[in-house]
Design a protein that fits this description.
By secondary structure, the chain is an alpha+beta fold. It has a single domain (2-99), classed as Transferase(Phosphotransferase) domain 1 (Transferase(Phosphotransferase), domain 1, Orthogonal Bundle). The protein contains four helices and four strands. The strands form two sheets. Strands 1-2 form a two-stranded antiparallel ribbon. It has a two-stranded antiparallel ribbon with strand order 3-4. Residues 105-114 have low confidence and may be disordered.
């Protein structure tokens, strides 16, 4: 947790602390009011021009570059729902580190309807 608290970068969501009292685990992180990259991409009212898209891609690259050079070294679960956008439309990577708090890892099964942790599962459930 000390490593997480020491990480500071413009393109990483700031970690403030955690409450790890069983049976619940809660992380306190920076709030990003614009939501996730997934939310922005699905918003039909928001038109994304080429410059804005390149800016978001650049933010991901900068955040991942910093993360891979840090003591954390890896994200482990990067997806559009883990990329958050702050009030200034700066993309910040979230949900990195502290893998021990996430529970046992399960193998990735792309076509499985049983994995309720995936965006595809909930998107399908919402459409049905």
């Amino acid at each position: 947790m000390s490593q997480m608290k020491d990480l500071q970068h413009d393109h990483l969501v700031r970690f403030y602390g955690a409450c790890v009292e069983p049976p619940h685990c809660c992380l306190l992180t920076e709030y990003c009011p614009r939501g996730s990259l997934q939310d922005i991409l699905e918003n039909d009212q928001m038109k994304l021009d080429g410059v804005f898209r390149i800016s978001l891609i650049n933010d991901v690259v900068r955040g991942m570059s910093y993360l891979h050079c840090s003591e954390i070294r890896s994200h482990g679960n990067l997806k559009s729902t883990n990329c958050l956008v702050d009030s200034r439309f700066v993309l910040k990577i979230a949900d990195f580190g502290l893998h021990e708090l996430r529970g046992p890892a399960r193998p990735f099964e792309p076509d499985s309807d049983e994995d309720s942790n995936t965006y595809a599962y909930w998107r399908t459930a919402k459409l049905v």
